[in-house]
Amino acid sequence: MNDPRAILSEVFGFSDFRPGQEDIVTAVAEGRDVLAIMPTGGGKSLCYQLPALLGHGVTLVISPLIALMRDQVRALQEAGVAAGALTSGNTEAETDAVWRGLHDGSLRLLYMAPERLASGGMDRMLNEAGIARIAVDEAHCVSQWGHDFRPDYLRIGKLRQALDVPLAAFTATADAETRAEIVERLFAGREPVQFLRGFDRPNIHLAFRPKDQPRRQILDFARARKGQSGIVYCGTRAKTEGLAQALSQDGHPACAYHGGMEADQRRAVEGRFAREDGLIVCATVAFGMGVDKPDIRWVAHADLPKSIEGYYQEIGRAGRDGAPAETLTLYGPDDIRLRRIQIDEGLAPPERKDADHGRLNALLGLAEALGCRRVQLLSYFGEEAAPCGNCDLCDRPPETFDGTEAVRMALSAILRTEEYFGAGHLIDILTGTMTDKIRQRGHDSLPTFGVGKAHGKKHWQGIFRQMMGHDLVRPDAERHGALRMTHAARPILRGEASIDLRRDALQARDRPAVKTL
Ligand code: ADP
Ligand code: ZN
């Protein structure tokens, strides 16, 4: 059988390819070097399993997840495909069967964990086995600055050179640095054909809102979707419990889920969520990996996710069935401060911290976007798109204004106080508000004192949030989160660049003008 479409239906039981699959299958079958980037659930495994059944030789599949490998091998065997795995969990009989299959040339797919490449004689054995190509799953594990770095992945590049066979690498991680690292380390710089497909999830409505009264905002969002299954992602375990309780009091079936709960409690929530209609789970990011519910109608973020990849993955749990689904992501200056400080205080090497700040910046850019969110989100993943008509900014384009003057006032207040204060005190200076702290420090005699009093505090809070969002200022972990100016702000301060800001986010909405703290 040498017709891909016939194999697709007869072996795999699918009537058609998913977006991107056919092109990738063709390129892999033609023996080209391939780097394919597809979102989780996009159907990557078919792209190396199907070509393995065309032509001769064994396809060596390197994958970091033993459980997943075993699942795939079992499924392939059930479909009548000669597949086997060499993993630490093997029985002797399984291992023997693999060797036999390699020896007599009947084996089509050999799965291996990367650690195995380190064992003695493996290169020679693979050389004799007649490996036709290498397929690498989760190829981003080769990236040292990513989150899943596996040192053993670095052996794959050498193995490819030793065997001199084509290599097909697969990942869902699409940022440009990771892609470049994969090319360098797995292909030794030899340019593979790249495929990037299927990141758009057009049925998911995208929306961001600055935090105003966060609990109220989540309750309102849930109330408008009563009876629908949803997930509220929270930044802390305590918040998952608090919000689940508030939602229950509001008449929704709701429960909490986080890594601090007993395993059987967690499983119970997962089971209920899968079975019941209309349950709301308030969860940390621990919830989701094993959740395969097609009809989740909405996902809300009560706190800003960690990165643009995290955001994409979490909202992507909604609407797997293709029917309309909605999302809402709340964010505020405290989230931005927290995320920055988490990165700075982490143990990662400096290069990785820079990359993490970059991923956070990409998410903040999306939060403060002035045009279609989907265009911006997909462009991060390398895909082009037209304005979508299914995000809050397409629904209602934001009003913008030239914020250059306001930003310069704020930067000037920061510099004149030697980058030692947080937004609250800086806003008191700008609005000319007399407080004890102002008096003690003599800040009422600064030239910037009161220069921004034409606007209220709320207005200035919006400006500071957007300045953080555009990475013009960053909180300094060593100075209790005091704001410091970044390089990006210099051209604005010097009058060489201007900046447009959103006006909509600045107006007090459904809330009294004075907030009691
Ligand atoms: P990934 O590795 O990209 O996360 P998988 O390869 O595990 O995704 O595929 C995700 C799901 O999609 C699996 O259940 C798989 O059986 C299914 N799938 C893959 N290709 C097709 C197809 N052409 N038609 C229908 N279902 C498919
Ligand atoms: Zn849009």
Automatic annotation (TrEMBL):
<dbReference type="GO" id="GO:0046872">
    <property type="term" value="F:metal ion binding"/>
</dbReference>
<dbReference type="GO" id="GO:0005524">
    <property type="term" value="F:ATP binding"/>
</dbReference>
<dbReference type="GO" id="GO:0006281">
    <property type="term" value="P:DNA repair"/>
</dbReference>
<keyword id="KW-0547">Nucleotide-binding</keyword>
<dbReference type="GO" id="GO:0005737">
    <property type="term" value="C:cytoplasm"/>
</dbReference>
<dbReference type="GO" id="GO:0006310">
    <property type="term" value="P:DNA recombination"/>
</dbReference>
<keyword id="KW-0479">Metal-binding</keyword>
<keyword id="KW-0067">ATP-binding</keyword>
<feature type="domain" description="Helicase ATP-binding">
    <location>
        <begin position="25"/>
        <end position="192"/>
    </location>
</feature>
<keyword id="KW-0378">Hydrolase</keyword>
<dbReference type="GO" id="GO:0030894">
    <property type="term" value="C:replisome"/>
</dbReference>
<keyword id="KW-0347">Helicase</keyword>
<dbReference type="GO" id="GO:0016787">
    <property type="term" value="F:hydrolase activity"/>
</dbReference>
<feature type="domain" description="Helicase C-terminal">
    <location>
        <begin position="214"/>
        <end position="364"/>
    </location>
</feature>
<comment type="similarity">
    <text>Belongs to the helicase family. RecQ subfamily.</text>
</comment>
<dbReference type="GO" id="GO:0003677">
    <property type="term" value="F:DNA binding"/>
</dbReference>
<keyword id="KW-0234">DNA repair</keyword>
<keyword id="KW-0413">Isomerase</keyword>
<dbReference type="GO" id="GO:0009432">
    <property type="term" value="P:SOS response"/>
</dbReference>
<keyword id="KW-0233">DNA recombination</keyword>
<protein>
    <recommendedName>
        <fullName>DNA helicase RecQ</fullName>
        <ecNumber>5.6.2.4</ecNumber>
    </recommendedName>
</protein>
<dbReference type="GO" id="GO:0043138">
    <property type="term" value="F:3'-5' DNA helicase activity"/>
</dbReference>
<keyword id="KW-0238">DNA-binding</keyword>
<dbReference type="GO" id="GO:0009378">
    <property type="term" value="F:four-way junction helicase activity"/>
</dbReference>
<keyword id="KW-0227">DNA damage</keyword>
<dbReference type="GO" id="GO:0043590">
    <property type="term" value="C:bacterial nucleoid"/>
</dbReference>
<dbReference type="GO" id="GO:0006260">
    <property type="term" value="P:DNA replication"/>
</dbReference>
<keyword id="KW-0862">Zinc</keyword>
